[in-house]
Amino acid sequence: MEKLSMATAIFCAVAVAVLAAAVGGEAAVVEHTFVVHEMNQTHLCNTTKIYVVNGQLPGPTIDVTDGDTVVVHVKNHLPHGLTIHWHGVRQIMSCWSDGAGFVTECPIPPGGEHTYRFNVTGQVGTLWWHAHVTCLRATVAGALVIRPKGNKYPFPTPAKDVPIIIGEWWELDLVELDRRMHDGNFDDNPLSATINGKLGDLSNCSGVPEESFVLDVARGETYLLRIINTALFSEYYFKVAGHTLTVVGADGNYLTPYKTDMVTVAPGEAIDVLMVADAKPAHYHMVALANQPPEPDPQIPGFVSRGLVRYAGVPNNNNGMPVPTPLMPNQHNTMPSFYFHNNLTGLAHPDRHRVPMHVDERLFVTLGLGSICRNGSKTSCKRRRSNETIVVATMNNVSFHHPTKASLLESYYDGKPNKTLYTEDFPDNPPHPYNYTDRALIPPGPLEEALEPTFKSTKLRRFKYNASIEIVFQSTALLQSDSNPMHLHGYDFFVLAQGIGNFNPRTDPKKFNYHNPQLRNTVQVPRTGWAAVRFIADNPGVWYLHCHFEFHIIMGMATAFIVENGPTPETSLPPPPPEFKRCGANGLTRP
Ligand SMILES: *[C@@H]1O[C@H](CO)[C@@H](O)[C@H](O)[C@H]1NC(C)=O
Ligand SMILES: *[C@@H]1O[C@H](CO)[C@@H](O)[C@H](O)[C@H]1NC(C)=O
Ligand SMILES: *[C@@H]1O[C@H](CO)[C@@H](O)[C@H](O)[C@H]1NC(C)=O
Ligand SMILES: *[C@@H]1O[C@H](CO)[C@@H](O)[C@H](O)[C@H]1NC(C)=O
Ligand SMILES: *[C@@H]1O[C@H](CO)[C@@H](O)[C@H](O)[C@H]1NC(C)=O
Ligand SMILES: *[C@@H]1O[C@H](CO)[C@@H](O)[C@H](O)[C@H]1NC(C)=O
Ligand SMILES: *[C@@H]1O[C@H](CO)[C@@H](O)[C@H](O)[C@H]1NC(C)=O
Ligand SMILES: *[C@@H]1O[C@H](CO)[C@@H](O)[C@H](O)[C@H]1NC(C)=O
Ligand SMILES: *[C@@H]1O[C@H](CO)[C@@H](O)[C@H](O)[C@H]1NC(C)=O
Ligand SMILES: *[C@@H]1O[C@H](CO)[C@@H](O)[C@H](O)[C@H]1NC(C)=O
Ligand SMILES: *[C@@H]1O[C@H](CO)[C@@H](O)[C@H](O)[C@H]1NC(C)=O
Ligand SMILES: [Cu+2]
């Protein structure tokens, strides 16, 4: 019976685009049904239970035009609570549809459903969607493609566009993974990287290689690759042998075309590149390789997935010739990521995208790790990776305590801020300045012991409507020297500059690019470096700000911004839409 209804539901889960206006009208309503369910999949001789939408991995692509309305009916057939976040969608005046678990809504209960409804306005390019509770987003994720009105691109219209979703294959159950990470256990790793769900032929079991993602091309045609990193763990280097890539967009905004042989994509980022099939007709490998800081940082296995670009008319054996594989950087060299991101600039901005020149609120935010005592003691326990501590992550020495029974937005909106749920004292600066990028902060030290004690709490920061906000993020070397892909919900920010080492407030602002900075929803704050961003707080609501490395967000590298209402109804957050389901006593939405 249950099986039957599931099959029916999946069968019916097709996208329906209804033209809202008559012939020639522009805005459409694009409607999907997402059935989220368990499925078995076998890789590397092992059958694993995974969580997917409509039987697909990666999940279905939502394909819309700028100005459309998106309606997604999510049916939760999992034994766990679930929310879906529309990553990068500005959600102007529709914070209620953001889908961030315990931030904008409580999870949809097992067997429950929820309708998300939002407009996509003034954005074009690639965004994506993913589960925003626990680690389910490793497989509950897909692309959200936004086409320009009239299909008018600022570059030659590509023959075809192809999502390239770089992810990971986990053998461990993702809910169990989440439980272990909450408990401070970070010993689990994925088995392989994936490209569009395929592990690729560099992985095999008993000599039988895994399937590779294949991109079929015709010579002379231009392809728009929409490269999205949905991985929980790593930033990736991506290359195609024998081909140059031209970066033309990121996070739903155009960029000044930038030619390169390699793209770097951190978790949370979406990078649009053009690839012209202008090489000698043959087969070519594409490679996605995870990078990581070198020792003394803790090491994880190197993850890689290899795919194939296959020209039409070339026989399967590639005419007996070896298939060229791109030469990848050393996985421990993180500088190519810095150079890549630092080379990107925005394409001339229309008026509404003008860089704010004044600053009302200035935040300097350090990103690092710390530890809390396992036994609940505030201060006394053995530090330095002893089993008496749980390693956590911090922003300005606050480790975010995720609510588990209520949502921040509902609490704020109801106007009776429950002080036991959150406070509004997220600090604008780190409490004690120190040499943030000193390598001697990485164990075995010796400097970390005094700095690692920290606390868990739910500290938010409130902003007036229309305030101009500058944030300088500083990646530290405290306990480890990872980069941090920082993602803000509900906004795009201008990335004014980035640098290696400690931010210098006297000299570094002179490097700010006010002319054509990139507009992003995720900024890859370089390893032991900084990035400066600015935005106008013109979208009221409660917006999650967090690192998109899953282990960092679980460890507490997060906060949320409250943006107050403006003076008029048009500048104020409307009441929850009729479909919105309030949080019940058990921390799940009421039926
Ligand atoms: C997956 O496989 C397990 C073990 O064989 C089985 O019990 C379970 O019903 C399967 N799940 C699905 C969704 O097919
Ligand atoms: C989306 O746009 C339509 C048409 O402009 C408008 O009526 C509707 O209120 C908007 N919906 C949301 C959720 O903002
Ligand atoms: C298969 O995966 C499960 C976890 O899903 C793991 O416990 C088991 O050890 C794996 N078996 C092999 C042969 O790798
Ligand atoms: C299978 O994988 C192993 C270990 O990665 C590798 O040494 C071997 O060459 C692979 N075999 C095949 C047939 O690809
Ligand atoms: C742009 O990339 C090149 C090649 O990696 C690098 O040499 C150069 O320093 C980068 N430019 C900037 C401004 O970082
Ligand atoms: C926690 O452990 C430390 C050191 O072992 C001990 O000094 C402290 O009293 C304990 N605190 C609590 C609340 O149990
Ligand atoms: C910590 O490790 C020590 C020695 O390995 C062991 O005796 C002790 O029981 C452990 N404590 C906890 C809280 O796990
Ligand atoms: C405030 O929130 C806490 C934690 O969710 C809850 O235990 C408590 O009952 C709430 N208090 C009020 C007055 O709503
Ligand atoms: C901070 O640490 C770095 C790396 O260890 C070192 O090169 C630099 O001189 C230190 N800066 C200061 C101000 O001490
Ligand atoms: C964080 O705060 C704790 C408690 O005040 C302090 O011991 C620790 O040194 C601080 N760490 C940092 C990085 O500021
Ligand atoms: C927002 O701020 C700008 C610049 O300070 C000002 O010109 C504008 O009138 C403000 N808009 C609103 C709605 O407050
Ligand atoms: Cu991080």
TrEMBL record:
UniProt name for this protein: Laccase
Keywords tagged on the record: Apoplast, Copper, Glycoprotein, Lignin degradation, Metal-binding, Oxidoreductase, Repeat, Secreted, Signal
GO BP terms, alphabetized: lignin catabolic process
Subcellular localization, as worded in the UniProt entry: Secreted, Extracellular space, Apoplast
PROSITE patterns in the cross-refs: MULTICOPPER_OXIDASE1, MULTICOPPER_OXIDASE2
Catalytic activity: 4 hydroquinone + O2 = 4 benzosemiquinone + 2 H2O
Top-tier EC class: oxidoreductase
Native species: Brachypodium distachyon (Purple false brome)
